[in-house]
Design brief:
This protein has 3 helices and 9 strands, in the order βαββαβαβββββ. By secondary structure, it is an alpha+beta fold. The strands form 3 sheets. A 4-stranded mixed β-sheet has the order 7-6-5-8, covered by helices on one side.
């Protein structure tokens, strides 16, 4: 886990590179939670989502009114990832889904997230050392003569990695369970979330439709306040595989695991 010291673009917060043993088998959402799925939660529970979040429109970032996961400032379908989701919103969704299904859904730990993003590789990206715009939704305009993305794409718009997981690189940043720490010194080595309160920030991973290619690398980490709602951040669900599950596919909506 983490970036080797000689990786171009690697920074201190991605080090030291260390070995982690993921001790629990996992069932992981093939996709980020979609607009349709999150809307089902809001409709079922009456969960209060404000019509306000941070968006980038006309190349200006600011908090805007009449913006939410339903209207993030760009066109989307029910199969787009839900954005404008705070860490607290994501945890509430997991609690609802757990109650609905009788199974313990949660956010991924940061170690689990990187493990799943890499899908058995040790290269900067799940498919090798580089990335091109046919593989992910990100800002490729800085390195190639391409139009800059103006929003998310459907969760199934690109091919999955070797483990069948879609868009671990790009499209949206994804909330993890962990508190933010400035390096991996003292990090858990069993794949669990780093729960001790290092700060008031939580980890996000993966890069987004606004990110340049280096920010999509498997080792890259970022942080946000758990109350932040932004048009580049959503989440994916996971649950530990218990007895009687037998590794079966479970359909929880669009983001079957």
């Amino acid at each position: 886990m983490g970036a080797p010291s000689d990786l171009k673009g690697g920074v201190e917060e991605e080090q030291p590179r260390h070995e982690v043993f993921v001790t629990q088998p996992l069932l992981v959402g093939r996709y980020a939670v979609t607009v349709a799925e999150f809307d089902a939660f809001v409709q079922a529970t009456g969960y209060a989502m404000p019509d306000r979040m941070f968006t980038c429109e006309a190349d200006v970032w600011r908090e805007r009114e009449r913006r939410s996961y339903r209207s993030p400032g760009f066109e989307q379908s029910p199969r787009h990832p839900a954005v404008g989701i705070s860490w607290h919103d994501a945890v509430a969704y997991c609690a609802w889904l757990s109650s609905l299904t009788g199974r313990g859904y949660r956010l991924m730990s940061e170690a689990e997230w990187e493990y799943c993003c890499r899908a058995g590789t040790s290269t900067p990206f799940a498919w090798g050392p580089g990335i091109v715009s046919s593989q992910a939704n990100y800002d490729a305009a800085s390195s190639r003569d391409l139009a800059r993305p103006r929003g998310t794409v459907r969760v199934d718009a690109f091919l999955p990695n070797a483990w069948g997981l879609h868009q671990m690189h790009g499209n949206i940043w994804e909330w993890c369970e962990d508190y933010w720490h400035d390096s991996y010194e003292g990090a858990p080595c069993d794949g669990s979330a780093w729960e001790d309160d290092g700060s008031d920030l939580r980890v996000v991973r993966g890069g987004s439709w606004m990110s340049v290619a280096p920010l999509l690398q498997s080792s890259v980490r970022n942080k946000e306040r758990p109350t932040t709602r932004m048009s580049t951040i959503g989440f994916r669900v996971v649950r530990s595989l218990g007895e009687g599950d037998c590794g079966a596919r479970h359909d929880t909506g669009d983001s079957a695991v």
